[in-house]
Amino acid sequence: MSLARRKLLQLIGLLGAPTVFLLVFFFGPLLIMLVYSLLTPGLYGGVDWIFSHLNYGRILGWADTRYEKFDPVYIAIFLRSLKLAALTVVASLAVCYPAAFWISRMRPGMRDFAIFLVTLPFFVSLIVRLFAWVLILRPTGFLNQGLMGLGLTGAPIEFLYTDFAVILGMTYVFIPFMFLPLYGSIEKLDLAQIEASSDLGATRFQTFRKVILPATLPGIVGGSVITFIPALGNFIVPSVLGGAKVLMIGNLIEQQFLSARNWPFGSALAMLVMSAVLILLIAQFRLAKKEAQS
Amino acid sequence: MKKMHLAATTALTLAPLAASSETLSIYNWGDYINPAVLEAFTEETGVEITLDSYGSNEEMLAKIQAGATGYDIVFPSVHMHDIMFQLGLLAKTDIGASPDFKNIDPQFVRAKTDPDAEYCLPYAWGNVGIVYNKELAGDIKSWDDFFALGDAGKKITLLDDLRETIGIGLIKTGASVNSTDPGEVAAAADYIIDHIAGVTAFTYDSVPQVISGDVAAAHWYVGANLYVSENPETIGYMIPEEGATMYQEDICVLESAPNKDAAKKFLEFYLRPEIAALNVEQQMNGTPNLPAQKLIPVELSSNETIYPPESVMEKLQIFEDLGRDLQLYNSEWTRIKTAQ
């Protein structure tokens, strides 16, 4: 047996199992969804094995039957979800970027403790934490009581069941997702470069724009992508803090699989989300490649 | 009660002798059975009970359809009982032939596919009305009063349930809550959309907010009486005079049940008036068990929102399975949810 051949066999032996695992458990479900999105809904959930393009027609414009009608509302919900997810990314970035700087400058013991605090919420059930936010945001809640006690507002402000509550809730939930990649790139920042920049006469803003920002860009992009994707498909936050009145695409998909018993339409909507995520990932990949080349 | 106590003590002494490995696996709605009922069953029979919960008929069906096995007993609503029968998921129990079945009021054997109760036992029923904050909402009596609160700038909430909420629109526009006419369903959705500005949320979690005064009134279940009994000064529960929906769940044994014998025993156990009454005491809903209705505390049996008079009962509609026509409601529901 030649050396090259043995190396190849070794490689197959090493990577074979994880590859099969990935194919079966990652692409398998995706494939099922894709196939289901092209079938007819079963009477009581599940699918009937009859081809139908109408699930996409309902979203994209050509369906017009008793049960499958085109409605621009689905695209509108999707666009609105994109907007809410993007705002969540911006808000988490605004919170995490300075926080990551601050924590990276702490002395080591404090630093580890601070990072532990960032991940601490994961130890408590998400639902419990969201209901805590309901208690804070509701008209008779802590926030309004505080504002009224300080005389800042006469009547309670509507926080709960608004877009604001949903963005706040998602930001809160996804802060660790944004923080960790950001922290990774900020911690590696070379202080000597910053000093050199100001020695050479750059203003603080110039230093930030020309030195700090490019150096931390991978963390910003990584954190944004990893926050945006789950935020786009989230349905628990809009249902608890948005009062199910702030409908996101995730809620719509959940509705198709449960109360509406329309799995194919739910699958088609899920494929829509998937393609948006895929486009985003390809864009990120291209960006990273360009950066590596330059 | 005394008799039950006696039974419990005998069971306690015998329990160690019985095969302790036997278990009964119950899959029920959250908080939908008095734990004391389950304890009494274990004490008497030595059968250990495990309890899992679900939040909707569809969630339960989806799990069972996806192949979840190991459950013996489920509690579907009547229309889901029909669906599960058609899908061949239910086991024949002949509970209707049990001697104690005479305790059950025959009007509650509702499932069309199971007219002689060969499969399931009627479990409990109730209506879906309005729980309101007395100070904020005043003395409201109807859906009109309810939506007028919203139009006047006070806050109201509706259930996050497509059939219940479109059902209000159907009642208000004079149609059946089981309508399959696209025009009627669209008109019902329009009724809700016309009043959407006052609706602050679609949620199940509204009772605490009605008590705190964050919400003036909420579309909710008869089980709100439990909270009314704890806060009688603050909140009330009522059935709107235009009519409302009612629900009923049945106890069914699954075809895939690992322990059908214990499951049948549980159904027979639940036929006993004192057991059904024990459940109602804590659940505050309706029981189809006639002798049990005489055993429950008078403040429950005389509460007309739990046991409404005949004139009100006539105005309560129960959901039927709509088959494909559920998709009409699905589209209209999305339209309601996106109306601002």
Description:
Chain A has 294 residues and is mainly α. Chain A has 12 helices and 2 strands; from the N terminus they run αββααααααααααα. In chain A, a hairpin with a 5-residue loop joins strand 1 (39-41) and strand 2. Chain B folds into 2 domains: 11-125 and 247-305, Periplasmic binding protein-like II (D-Maltodextrin-Binding Protein, domain 2), CATH 3.40.190.10; 126-245 and 312-339, Periplasmic binding protein-like II (D-Maltodextrin-Binding Protein, domain 2, 3-Layer(aba) Sandwich), CATH 3.40.190. In chain B, 41% of the residues lie in helices and 17% in strands. Chain B has helices at 2-14, 35-45, 57-65, 78-86, 134-137, 143-151, 162-172, 182-194, 207-212, 225-230, 260-271, 273-283, 290-295, 298-301, 310-313, 326-338; strands at 23-29, 48-54, 73-74, 121-133, 156-158, 199-202, 217-221, 235-238, 244-253, 316-318. In chain B, helix 2 links the parallel strand 1 (23-29) and strand 2 (48-54). In chain B, helix 1 crosses helix 2 and helix 8 packs parallel to helix 16. The A-B interface holds A 41, 43-46, 66-69, 71, 73-74, 76-77, 131, 134, 138-141, 160-161, 239-240, 242-245, 247, 251-252, 255-262 and B 56, 58-59, 61-62, 65, 83, 86-87, 155, 157, 160-162, 182, 199-203, 205, 209, 212-214, 323-324, 326-331, 333-335, 337-338. Chain A: It is found in: Cell membrane. Chain A: Pfam families: BPD_transp_1 (PF00528).
